[in-house]
UniProtKB/TrEMBL annotation:
Binding residue positions for Zn(2+): H57, C87, C90
Organism (species): Dryocola boscaweniae
Protein name per Swiss-Prot or TrEMBL: tRNA-specific adenosine deaminase
Membership in a protein family: Belongs to the cytidine and deoxycytidylate deaminase family. ADAT2 subfamily.
Annotated catalytic residues: E59
E.C. number(s) listed in UniProt: 3.5.4.33
Length: 167
């Protein structure tokens, strides 16, 4: 594959594949891919439940892996692709790691820290500015999350019905 074929959509599709992995593990389906010079240096999917770790968000997992690959906590000239608008913790980690660009799919009205709830990356007092591209494959990213939560609600409803029948 030539470099020109590695589009934002290409990498976001990769992040969506990782989001499905989170879903299979019973986690909220969010995936993240960290790219440096058109190569994946970090991947992550949500794992806080399985790892008993509140920091095990997809973005953090990808940033940690990228740091190990580059042997540096500063992840200069990298692009992080995430299926969902990052939270405050993840936005802070992006600033500390000095990534170049964040590309995300769906907005998160409840906890999004890139403009929905607040704008951590856009705060003028930050010591590093991260470029932001939003809305890449937004419909697909949003649909993945909606389907997950719809399925979860149906599972809970079925469980309640089984409990009531047993009583």
């Amino acid at each position: 594959m030539s470099e020109s074929e590695f589009t934002h959509e290409y990498w976001m599709r990769h992040a969506l594949t990782l989001a499905r992995r989170a879903w299979e593990e019973g986690e909220v389906p969010v995936g993240a891919v960290l790219v440096h010079e058109n190569k994946v240096i970090g991947e992550g999917w949500n794992r806080p439940i399985g790892r008993h770790d509140p920091t095990a968000h997809a973005e953090i997992m990808a940033l940690r892996q990228g740091g190990m690959v580059l042997q540096n906590y500063r992840l200069l000239d990298t692009t992080l692709y995430v299926t969902l608008e990052p939270c405050v913790m993840c936005a802070g980690a992006m600033i500390h790691s000095r990534i170049g660009t964040l590309v995300f799919g769906a907005r998160d009205a409840k906890t999004g820290a890139i403009g929905s709830l607040m704008n951590v990356l856009g705060h003028p007092g930050m010591n590093h500015q991260v470029g932001v591209i939003e809305g890449v494959l937004a419909a697909e990213c949003s649909a993945t999350l909606s389907e997950f939560f719809r399925a979860r609600r149906l599972e809970k409803k079925a469980l309640k019905e089984r409990v009531h029948k047993a009583e």
